[in-house]
Fold:
Amino acid sequence: MNPAAKHIGLIGLGLMGRPMGMNLIKAGYSLTVWNRTASRADELVAAGAKLARSPEEVAAASDFLLTIVSDPPALEEVLWGNCGAMPALKRGSIYVDSSTISPALARKIAAAGAERGVRFLDAPVTGGDWGAKKGELVFMIGGDAETLKEAEPILSVMGKKLFHLGPNGAGQTIKLAMNMILALQVDALAEALALTTRSGIAGEKLVEVMQSSMARSGVLDVKAPNLLKGEYVPSFPLRLMHKDLGLALDLGNQLGVALPATAAAREIYNAVKGAAKEDLDYSAVMKFWKR
Amino acid sequence: MNPAAKHIGLIGLGLMGRPMGMNLIKAGYSLTVWNRTASRADELVAAGAKLARSPEEVAAASDFLLTIVSDPPALEEVLWGNCGAMPALKRGSIYVDSSTISPALARKIAAAGAERGVRFLDAPVTGGDWGAKKGELVFMIGGDAETLKEAEPILSVMGKKLFHLGPNGAGQTIKLAMNMILALQVDALAEALALTTRSGIAGEKLVEVMQSSMARSGVLDVKAPNLLKGEYVPSFPLRLMHKDLGLALDLGNQLGVALPATAAAREIYNAVKGAAKEDLDYSAVMKFWKR
Amino acid sequence: MNPAAKHIGLIGLGLMGRPMGMNLIKAGYSLTVWNRTASRADELVAAGAKLARSPEEVAAASDFLLTIVSDPPALEEVLWGNCGAMPALKRGSIYVDSSTISPALARKIAAAGAERGVRFLDAPVTGGDWGAKKGELVFMIGGDAETLKEAEPILSVMGKKLFHLGPNGAGQTIKLAMNMILALQVDALAEALALTTRSGIAGEKLVEVMQSSMARSGVLDVKAPNLLKGEYVPSFPLRLMHKDLGLALDLGNQLGVALPATAAAREIYNAVKGAAKEDLDYSAVMKFWKR
Amino acid sequence: MNPAAKHIGLIGLGLMGRPMGMNLIKAGYSLTVWNRTASRADELVAAGAKLARSPEEVAAASDFLLTIVSDPPALEEVLWGNCGAMPALKRGSIYVDSSTISPALARKIAAAGAERGVRFLDAPVTGGDWGAKKGELVFMIGGDAETLKEAEPILSVMGKKLFHLGPNGAGQTIKLAMNMILALQVDALAEALALTTRSGIAGEKLVEVMQSSMARSGVLDVKAPNLLKGEYVPSFPLRLMHKDLGLALDLGNQLGVALPATAAAREIYNAVKGAAKEDLDYSAVMKFWKR
Structure:
């Protein structure tokens, strides 16, 4: 099929959404976009995207809708708020959400879509803005295998790996589990660095030894420089990691699964968020010990 | 210098001490050993080591003493108990301890050694029994650079990397920081797997996605199979990891460094240790959610 | 004013709502009631209350509406669900909610009421079913002082103390703060009893000493017998305390106020809730150590 | 028996030891005292006590020895350090320790005493300096009933209640359990006040409501004014409460009893201790939220 014949809608033009949209345009798709702050669309519009006036307008123009917004309330507003997308989605279309939300909301959206003949995938991503630019995101997908098969050519433009993890909600569940682990890894590094430096030993020593040991990790490679330098330019913002820890704890508390270290870490991120004057990367959890 | 001219003493013939001793013998050193349970010495004696009747006898026979026992009380007993090693150490000899103990005890030993003209290095190791067998341990070393230089030929027989981290105590501080991180990484994986499986998704799915993401880690490669299968044959025993978390928290509480997630994780390891009927690997922290 | 001239609506006929309604009837008020499970209304209907078919019908019949349901979703359903109360509330009427919900939801309700000319008080209660029966509840009230003055004759029928704590939301904030403290007091007692009994000392000894010391408390008098006997007939159900801890943590995380011990305790209540086969009092947190 | 015929030794002349000694003198006992800082003995010496030059000298002069020092290392120094008391204790004498130490150390002392024909009671106290002055302390006692019977006339001079709780160690176990509860009650109040005040509501409102509810407690009456005013003149110093939490956690971790909220609270006290410039009451845990 000619990509240009497929009309794609994209709602949410943040750090992730913009490069994802750019890759769709480069692949030849016709793209209609919307963002709460319209100016964020400039680059995409210059590249050929059409700017809609509402989520509703995007949905009405699309065979395939993709949303990627900051949190559950933002997504609910986009779908069911004023001029929301849900009631305008076309029968037979596919809707993919790549925001990080609760599995319960993903299932609620799936049910609402099904009532209208719309097939839904929850498909949060990992890989950062860097992965979004390179088209090398990892998609964690919940939903129907047939739907995924049909969505695959489009998702493959943005990601290098598509993991089908189960029915709707499964993508979000795995995403929350992943982010718990990332948040705890960075917090563990911060606690260990606090202990090390307060003992009078340079943090670099700890990092150097770790890199030669089983304690090595992706997080260590990417985030240790931030913690050592105290520079926290947002790659994945702390406020979003804090939100995801809340979603993971909500899920654990619905299921009766105790998450003691996650709960402890969430309060540390919370303390840093409460004291922060600006938007910081989640590695700024280190500031808990540098107040 | 001919290695055989150097008399080495080795106290502590556990999972780590035995292969370390074997590598010293293979390198041509003359070795005198002692262990609380004497039968653990059989293999080394068969390979040419001399079995002493007390720590004192080992110390008296050695130019270079190495100890690697399970915890601080065991080391204090070896050094200052009945027929202990410390009063018998030879002036001018070098003493290296590779147990994991508190930095404070390492400094106390260094001071006691200095009074007798004995130079001390705290040099805990990482790399597991596998690294010990291959002679590929990583040594985290606190003490004098000159002493380390002199000890290097011997330590290099057992390890591939010798990190000099600062004065006495620095090796132990970094070791405790490392083990905090390992313990939290495994606990984080366990919390995430508990959330995933209780959500009805196979834990293997989470591990598979993690391996393609920034959440990948040395721990994931080595320990995820244990957690997924529920098989916890001790490689690094949970009771020792639990002890090391206690040492890290003691240090943090002496220094006034709060370690909230470490404290939360320690109680989980504690609960599992309290309920365990047998010796388990520290990855058995997963049992907290499978009771 | 003749109480009978005032039409009161009551939605939510649980452990608290039923005796509160009975006291209103005894005081001479005309009462219209609704409950999701209609059979719970039998006793009140027998005493003279009118049973409505929907929340909407209750609201339409009332000068003064009182709701007391189990959680925020239940209240949202009652107000804005099918045949909900909010759109039917009469201009000039007063609406008092005694459920425990988030301060944010209390403010949202207040705003929705104001749009319709309805004055709202958030007025959660403490005192248990026993206090409800005796008409000796404590009301924690957020809202306008004038409104409270008008509501006072009615609330005084059910409660012995009316604390006016600030604008809308303030009642709920204080209620959540109170329940955090109660939950932590009971958890602290449970942790201390676990330590005591595992040390081989009867828990009764600890309780006896506490009663002679500064560690005495209302919770100790009321809940210690439950913990000692292992009998947890619900007075205040664990599932509701667990929910309230979640609301308190949500509030803390919105405000950037870290609540580390509350977060730790919540996960213990969570573990017990997850393992419970039946409805238990919140003092059943003790079961965490008796699994 | 004439009290003056009984020679009592007292080691440890802090906030508690001084008034306890004064009550012994008033009751007519002959008293020999020692303190690391000798000037603390002035008042007692003026009242008739004899000042010894070492713990050894006190022990040698006493039929009944009482110690009350700040922590386990201080007690070990007093007993087994230079010119220590233990080797000088008279056969047939009674030794009572009212410090807060670990149950294990209490049992070790009991065993060492038994070897010398000395009967030992662990008898930590509660009631504060105020209770010490009034002779209204509560003693939590571990040891032999016969020994307690013989010690009772002397202990009754200082305390109004003597609880016999079990064999040696039992007094310390109950004391640690008590202090866990006190520490958590004060931390719970601090967390709740932080939530309340950050919500824009005066903390006094929370305290007022609590006093009318089941959340009332001895701690609330005594400590709430400190937290509200931010005045933390030491009554029971934070550094000692922090130490006792460490002893309780050590005990829990030896027994395999998880203490999650206690562990969380200990790290908060730790953070405040680490940042404190001066000696503060343990109610200063509130400073965690006021940095």
User: Anything to note?
Assistant: The mean pLDDT of chain C is 96. DSSP finds twelve helices and nine strands in chain C. Residues 173-289 of chain C form a domain with the N-(1-d-carboxylethyl)-l-norvaline Dehydrogenase; domain 2 fold (CATH 1.10.1040.10).
